[in-house]
Amino acid sequence: DWWKACVHKCPITGFPVRLLPYPPFKFKVRMGSSSPDNVQLIDGVSLVCRVLSEWDFQALGRQLTEQDIESLDLHIKRCSLGSFRIGRGLALFKQDSELAKRELKELRQRAGQKLS
C-alpha cells in the first residue's frame, strides 16, 4: 500500500491519506502540467459522492473536466470502491424520462448518505 507513507491530508475531506483503506485518487490540480507538485492525493470516493450529492462539478478550485470524470469513474471501478459514477449521473441527467430522473435522484441521495 504505497499511500501509507503519505504524510498529507486529503484537501477535500481533511482525512489523513495514509489512513485511507483504499488507494487515493491522483488529482491534477492544473490541467496540462506534468510537474510532480501538480498532483494532489485525494479520497476519490468522497469527491465522487460530493459531486453527485451536491451536483457541483468542481474540486480544488477548478471545474472537473471530462477527463477528470472518466479518470475518477475508472478509479472507483478499478479499486472496487462501489457503484458511484459521475458519468452515470450525467448520463441519467441527459435522459428525458421519469425513470432516469428517479434513478438519478436515488443515486444522489445514496451519495449524500455515504458522506454522512
Can you walk me through this structure?
- The chain has 116 residues and is mainly alpha-helical.
- Helices cover 44% and strands 10% of the residues.
- The strands form two sheets. Strands 1-2 form a two-stranded antiparallel ribbon.
- Strand 3 and strand 4 form a beta hairpin.
- Helix 1 packs across helix 4.
- It starts with 24 loop residues before the first strand and ends with a helix.
- The model has no long low-confidence stretch (mean pLDDT 94).
In brief, what are we looking at here?
This protein is mainly alpha-helical. It has 4 helices and 4 strands, in the order ββαββααα.
SSE sequence, one letter per element: EEHEEHHH
Content-based structural category: mainly alpha
- Please count the helical segments: 4
Question: What is the residue-mean pLDDT, rounded to a whole number?
Answer: 94
**Largest sheet, if any?**
2 strands, antiparallel
Beta percentage is 5-15%
What oligomeric state is this? Answer: single chain
**Could you say which overall geometry the principal axes of the C-alpha atoms support?**
globular
**Percent range of helical residues:** 40-55%
Between the first and last Cα atoms, what is the distance in angstroms?
A: 26 Å
Unreliable spans are none
Q: What is the tally of beta strands? A: 4
Order of adjacent strands in the largest pleated sheet: 1-2
Radius of gyration: 15 Å
Helix and strand layout, with pairings?
Layout: E1 25-28, E2 39-42, H1 44-54, E3 58-59, E4 62-63, H2 66-78, H3 86-94, H4 98-115
Antiparallel strand pairs: 1-2, 3-4
